[in-house]
Amino acid sequence: MTSALINMVGTATHTITMPTRPPLTAPHFSVCVYCGARPGDEPVFAETARQVGEWIGRHGGQLVYGGGSNGLMGILADATLAAGGRVVGIIPQALVDKEWAHLNCSELHVVDTMHERKRMMAERADAFIALPGGIGTFEEFFEVWTWRQLGYHNKPVGLLNLNGYYDGLLNFLGSVVQHQFMGNWQMDLIAVDSQAPALLEKLVQSAGLHYSLRSEAL
Ligand code: AMP
Question: Which is it for the CA torsion 163, 164, 165, 170, positive or negative?
Answer without folding.
Answer: positive
